[in-house]
Amino acid sequence: MRIMVCVKRVPASGGAPQLTEDGRGIDTRHLSFTVGPHEECAIEEAVQLVERFGGSVTVLTVGPAEAEEQLRFAISLGADHGILVEAGPDEVDPQATAFALTEAIRDGEAASGAPFDLIMFGNESPDAGHYQVGVRVACALGRPIVGGVKGIDVDPDAGRVRFRRDTPGGAEVFEAALPAAVAVREGLNLPRYPSMRGRLRARKAEITELRPHVPAGGLRRIRLRVPEQQRPETVVLGHGASAAPAVVDLLEELEVV
Amino acid sequence: MGGVLVLVEPDGGVESSAVALAFGRVIAGGLGELLGAAAIGPVADGADDALPALAGGHGATHVHHVRHPLLDDYSPECWGEALAQLVAHTEPRAVISPATARGTEVMAQAAARADLPLATNCLTVSPDSRAWQLSRIRQGGMLIEDAELTAGVVMMTIAAGAVPPDDAGPTAVSTSGTAQVVSYTPEFDTSFVHSRVVDRSAQESGVSLTTARVVVSGGRGVGGAEGFLPLEELAKLTGGAVGCSRVATNNGWRPHRDQVGQTGSKVNPDLYIACGISGATQHWVGCMGAKHILAVNTDPDAPLVTRATHAVIGDVAEVIPAVVEEIHRRARRT
Ligand SMILES: Cc1cc2nc3c(=O)[nH]c(=O)nc-3n(C[C@H](O)[C@H](O)[C@H](O)COP(=O)(O)OP(=O)(O)OC[C@H]3O[C@@H](n4cnc5c(N)ncnc54)[C@H](O)[C@@H]3O)c2cc1C
Ligand SMILES: Nc1ncnc2c1ncn2[C@@H]1O[C@H](COP(=O)(O)O)[C@@H](O)[C@H]1O
């Protein structure tokens, strides 16, 4: 199986976001970066599928030159190739992102003469959260795509795949013909950590770089704001085990015991 | 032809559909346009009246009921293509849907097929002749983005927590309270590529994380899978559910369905008890909807402690068993 995984470089901070002075973006000077948990699971699943059925995993990103770091991270987890579509430091809108990804995938498929059996996305990017880039790429390539997926069952010989996802009332299973696309959610699997060997491999791996012309889409970010939240004065009920009566008083007050 | 079109979910999402309709009504009113609704696929048995009542009750004059054998069960591609065709057919100024999982998926499919931009998770929207101004949720709720949308047809999904805007003056909406149903049948090529549902199952019963009145959650500070036993006991005594942070999930201490946060579940209990959880923003956005938050943490400066309504400073492994014991002691006394 040949699998393509699309990943995005995003800030990893667990602290309150610091905005730039003009409010147009996040001050990333002191941040470290990562790929989102959904995409980590996409990489893990792709690597597991190739371990089982053979083939290769390519990771693809649209972003600044530094996004190379995220491609190397994916390679350290077992991906084989990395493609960086260099788009500069500013955030790219979802239509343009999808356009750039689609072109890169078309190039890759033309070079090998065969489609990627599975193109994988995260359900949503952790920072922008547009919930649409995967769908746009799949539509442009004429592939089926299911989102929110937490279970993948591929039958390469039969040329079909099943996707399971949770719904508000339970779960549903979809079937599609290969080649297909999927947007996955964290919980699909438990991603591994990079191995020593993987890290070495990632350091040496060659990254393909592309710089296509990408037309802008219709959604334009103007500024970011931190929503107002009231900060209650925290009532400290006590220290250690001796706080238990005060905690149970609270539970009784809220009528939950 | 104009108008504002709202995609509704008469079966699964009446509440969120109502919020989207309220937005649509105000936008239509402001533009002096008609409000219409669209529903795709069959409505549940005996619910034939629900559709015109839901739409009409919110001021829609008409409902497009989109039917085709390929739409009899849910399929993202078929539903999205059907909506794209309806949009091409009716040429509305704007298309709005609730930001439910399904609503978002169908809108993304339709936008992709119609080659239109799509703004998801919007909180506010104001039409403008040049570009529509909107604000939308980012990072699961930690940030708000102000954005501009320029498009022939404006497509957006409305966030679950969005507050419908006040009525914007005179509207061209229906006052009869029930909307006229108009059937629409899209066309599909025989080679149309799509996925289809082959199996459905219902949830196992039990207290669900997203509806529980109390959630007892644990993070790294719980120390391991066994460390969750007292938390489970406290959840049982309070009729609550057990949640966790991503560290607990990643270490394999809890299944991912227990995870609270940006990539887990959002919870809205009366009381959220956060045990040994630091309160990273990605966790906070999952629990900030709780009415009361009790943080149990050894660190008095942990972000969750400073943001909580109540706190106990101390070791989870001592505090929670003592709370459980105190509940038992009071039960014996009465
Ligand atoms: C894109 C993205 C999405 C994410 N999504 C999520 C998500 O959905 N949910 C989520 O939870 N995280 C998410 N994270 C991870 C998040 O950033 C944090 O890493 C995570 O929430 C930290 O978990 P924690 O609080 O259990 O661990 P830590 O941050 O390590 O905190 C442990 C806390 O326990 C306290 N402690 C230690 N020992 C004890 C003890 N004996 N008794 C009491 N207290 C003790 C410490 O003082 C500390 O405050 C996401 C991250 C990214 C980048
Ligand atoms: N800049 C990007 N580069 C590569 N993949 C991306 C990029 N942006 C989004 N994606 C993919 O599309 C998914 C959905 O993103 P979004 O539509 O922004 O929520 C992400 O989880 C990624 O898999």
UniProtKB/TrEMBL annotation, chain A:
Entry-linked Pfam families: ETF
Stored InterPro entries: ETF_a/b_N, ETF_b, ETF_beta_N, Rossmann-like_a/b/a_fold
Domain Electron transfer flavoprotein alpha/beta-subunit N-terminal: 23-219
SUPFAM superfamilies: Adenine nucleotide alpha hydrolases-like
Cofactor: FAD
SMART domains: ETF (SM00893)
CDD domains: ETF_beta (cd01714)
TM stretches of this protein: none
GO molecular function: electron transfer activity
Gene3D superfamilies: HUPs
Quaternary organization: Heterodimer of an alpha and a beta subunit.
Purpose of the protein: The electron transfer flavoprotein serves as a specific electron acceptor for other dehydrogenases. It transfers the electrons to the main respiratory chain via ETF-ubiquinone oxidoreductase (ETF dehydrogenase).
Protein name in UniProt: Electron transfer flavoprotein subunit beta/FixA family protein
Automatic annotation (TrEMBL), chain B:
GO terms (BP aspect): fatty acid beta-oxidation using acyl-CoA dehydrogenase
Cofactor note: Binds 1 FAD per dimer.
Primary role: The electron transfer flavoprotein serves as a specific electron acceptor for other dehydrogenases. It transfers the electrons to the main respiratory chain via ETF-ubiquinone oxidoreductase (ETF dehydrogenase).
Keyword entries, A-Z: FAD, Flavoprotein
GO molecular function: electron transfer activity; flavin adenine dinucleotide binding
Electron transfer flavoprotein alpha/beta-subunit N-terminal domain: residues covered: 4-192
Keyword set includes Signal: no
Full protein name: Electron transfer flavoprotein subunit alpha/FixB family protein
Subunit: Heterodimer of an alpha and a beta subunit.
Requisite cofactors: FAD
SMART domains named among the record's database cross-references: ETF
Family: Belongs to the ETF alpha-subunit/FixB family.
Positions contributing to FAD binding: 220, 245-246, 259-263, 276-283, 297
